[in-house]
Design a protein that fits this description.
Strand order of the largest sheet: 3-2-1-4
Pathway: Amino-acid biosynthesis
GO molecular function, one term: 1-(5-phosphoribosyl)-5-[(5-phosphoribosylamino)methylideneamino]imidazole-4-carboxamide isomerase activity
Shape: globular
Family: Belongs to the HisA/HisF family.
Strand content: 35-45%
EC number: 5.3.1.16
Order of helices and strands: EEEHEH
Protein name: 1-(5-phosphoribosyl)-5-((5-phosphoribosylamino)methylideneamino)imidazole-4-carboxamide isomerase
Number of strands: 4
Structural class: alpha+beta
């Protein structure tokens, strides 16, 4: 069985985060630079990236466009 892994960057207020139980006020920041995080994934050999604008998902409009 073959499968492809896609690393993910979840953006909140321009930072790379993970939410606790999907709650925006319970975010752990992993990086202040989405570009640096994307480069790190590229350097690790990944060719694709899944990016989620969490602010946009909760507000219904793109918010982190500049970070993307």
């Amino acid at each position: 069985m073959n499968f492809t892994l896609y690393p993910a960057i979840d953006l909140k207020d321009g930072q790379c985060v993970r939410l606790l139980r999907g709650e925006m006020d319970k975010a752990t920041v992993f990086s202040d630079s989405p570009a640096d995080q994307a480069r790190a994934f590229r350097e690790a050999g990944f060719t694709h990236l899944h990016v989620v604008d969490l602010n946009g998902a909760f507000e219904g409009k793109a918010v982190n466009r500049a970070a993307v």
